[in-house]
Hints:
The complex is a heterodimer. By secondary structure, chain A is mostly helical. Chain A folds into 2 domains: 44-270, no CATH class; 272-354, no CATH class. Chain A has helices at 2-9, 20-36, 43-68, 76-94, 100-125, 131-149, 190-211, 214-224, 226-230, 236-262, 272-285, 290-308, 312-329, 334-353, and strands at 157-158, 161-162, 169-170, 176-177, 184-185, 264-265. Chain B has 9 helices and 10 strands. Chain B has helices at 42-50, 72-78, 95-103, 109-123, 138-150, 168-183, 195-201, 219-224, 226-232; strands spanning 2-13, 16-27, 31-35, 57-62, 65-66, 80-83, 156-160, 187-191, 204-209, 212-217. Chain B has a 6-stranded mixed beta sheet with strand order 6-7-8-3-9-10, with helices on both faces. A 4-stranded antiparallel beta sheet of chain B has the order 2-1-4-5, with helices on one face.
Amino acid sequence: MRGFLSLFRHLEGPQTAGRGPAFWSLFSLVLVAACAYPLFSDGYTVGNTVYFFVWVFIALSLCLIWGYGGSLSFGQTAFFGIAGYGYGVLTINFGSAYGFTLVALVLAIAIAALFALLLGYFMFFGRIAGVFLGIVTLAVTLMLERFMAQTAGPEWHIGSARLNGFNGMSAMPPLTIPWPGEPLVLFADIGLYYVVLGLLVLVYLGLRILMNSAFGNVIVAIRENPERAEMLGYDIRKYQLITFVIGAALAGLSGVLYTVWGQYITPSSMGMTAAALPLIWVAVGGRSDLTSTLIGTLAVLAAFQALTIYGSQYALVFMGVLLVLTVLIAPNGLVLGTMNWLGRFAARFTQRAG
Amino acid sequence: MSLLELRKLNKHFGGLHVTNSVDLTLRTGEIHCLIGPNGAGKSTLFRLILGEHHPGSGDILFAGENITALKSFARIHRGLSVKFQVPGVFKGVSVRQNLEIALQSRHRGAELEAEIGRLLAFLGLESEQAQIAGNLSHGQKQWLEIGMAISLKPRLLLLDEPTAGMSPEETHMTGEMVQRLNADGMTVLAIEHDMAFVRQVAHRVTVLHLGQVFAQGSIDEIVADERVAAIYLGQAHA
């Protein structure tokens, strides 16, 4: 029990911005607001918010692997797609009765994680690092996209699930929770909203604990100086691999939730644009901090959608400009930069007051 | 009793023999300095001992065990530790966290806090503990890395130019630090160019030249050796 409680000590620490009563009060306030929000909104807008939330998991996965671990994975979308298609294949074949969609969710993530374990083993135990890691992971996701894009013919099917090439796979059942009387079917509005919000809070807090633990210390040490970390006796390959697999599982969670949300998944979810966008969200927010990544991702997604109304090409150009500006003005990320500035300001203020 | 034994260690990059059949024995409890002109193969020898490079032929024995095929981290677990030539601290995190990363695999909770405090005091970095390590002075970075290296309580401490870039006072303090560690039972192998430091701490000195052991003895014997003076002046081939 004490061991369990000691985990909560790690909710704050040097690896995560935000600490103390002020931060957690604000956190609770935001959480309460997020819980109350569907009561004051309509089903479509809530569904749209779920769509934003869905992407946060893949952003957090990149924050973990790249921001904390220092390994740039350009192919988180590969795990996103594998899990998305995995969910589709499983549920189209076995249906949604007896809570199987929940089993499928877990299995689909497990498949993505297993794939990451295999890929990561060859990369990290083969000592691939730096830009080469980015190239390999990007190549993998583009390869998967190309592969799935040519599966249009009827010969491409797994059981009764047609892969459908570039049109993608659709009509998989939404998440369905068995319930006495009638099962709860989570369509992309209020029902799914609370489930995804719950998962988001769990993952966010879980990652905070992980990053402030001894494990997180080693991950950051590897980012700062892998040679030194190894010469302190850490088998850095194992730590990198575990981080990569956790990241892949989170990207997979994103993929399953995306598939569940729209009841479709296409090869372009693993394509070049899809692979590049999470990098921008994470870089703009602040890749080395979970909270900054979370806020940054939601803000950029909302801005992107608002701009898309005027034309998606312009929105993409804007994303590029935003990335360049971030790198030039606040290389650590706009949200993180602002949070640090506010922190310094508050410290100076309290110093003067004291 | 020998702690480290290098037997006919060879390493070549292409046609360049960086270490050429090096035999070297370190006695338990000694401070041994490795000197030699630039390019003599000193740092390569360290990398071979640490497992960052693998020798073309030859064996490395540590406390009687052949560790030639072991990975670096496994050698660290056997009781080796190193301070690199360029200070290898974790620049982006605080001094305290640097030490925590080094110490956390052996200590937890209150014990970990106590160990960090003890090490900060030993290094004289107490007032800098909250600073980001990248902001430390060069000398302080060197000490911090020495601190991380000794936090593993190694049997053999490898120091690659521990006093590079230090003032004479800092060099002397580093020498005293090394002597205190040695008095506690740590065997030390140091690459060093600063002769004042070598004179201060070394029990024995080995001169490496063109990848080979050129001379070995006490500092006085080495200084008196005219051949050693000659290679430093670049006249060995004359």
